[in-house]
Amino acid sequence: MPKRNLHARRGQRAKSGYSTYQRGRTHGSNDMAQKTLLGKNEIFADVLNGFIFKGKQVIKAEMLQDTNTTSIYKADGKIHSQDRDVAKLLTIGSQKVVILLVGIENQTRPDKNMAARVMSYDAAAYRYQLTKSKELYPVLTVVVYYGKEAWNYSRSLRENINMQVLPKEMRPLISDYEIKAFFRISDLSKQEINNRFKSAFFYVAEYFVQTNAGEEYHPSAKDVTVEDLQLVLDMMNAMSGSQVFEEAANMLNERKEDEVTNMTKVLNPYTQVRVDRAIKETTERVTREVSKETTKKVTTHNLISLIKSASLTPDRAMDLLGIPEAERPLYRKLLHKSLS
Q1: For residue 17, what is the enclosing H or E element?
Q2: Averaging pLDDT over each range in 74-88, 183-197, 231-245, which range is the top one?
């Protein structure tokens, strides 16, 4: 199979349900990177199986179909839109009967209004169904939280809105909406993520479990395709802002996208290059500093010898040795210490 440029093929992926993503820290690159990775049915199914079914392979990639993630609404006389991160239709049987619309929302920071946002996404999905059929299928929104800090907000709508000004009799009548499917990456142990995730999403979970715990990232050697690993590196680059992932992804650009590899093979060699470069730069800097220090000691020794043997003044001795005017205050201090 010939090598194929993965970047050149990204525009083609949109035709099969993938979001187009150009590498770089442009506005929205974080969201786009996540959508591109999770837009793959295999990855999407793995996230559901890992979080909801604790690794049991219940949802299959072939059971998922792409669906619209954008909904339109009118407010203040203007047309607005809201966009889910990723959404799929879950189907069963050879007739592909839809039994669920499921969306995945990725969060890197706590959001007090998350319950209201989820409610608006779900309501839009039900409203759309009403325009097509009287029979409704359920809608589920899964929130995946990658952040290090605790999510201190309630996941219930009622607990995040101000009802104190309402009469007590009216408060129980206010409908609630709660985020039922909320999963925090950092709540999983290293063993749990290894058991739960079978796809390249494993590396995303592994990275955040380790770094949120204050550890340096040491990847495992779980084999995935080059294409999937590159999408993971794109996502980790966008979310972490580290050039390590961007440059490591560039190393994969000309390889076969269906070739099998792992994060250890890709990231560790690149990291070692950076380590070797840092060691070389440090060694060169130390050598320069040592040479400078040695030169200073030799020059001071020669100055003292001239002053004592020829009864010269410090300035005359420095004239004979050709010491620049800018450096003479330093040598005057050194001579003062040595001759006093």
Answers
A1: none
A2: 183-197
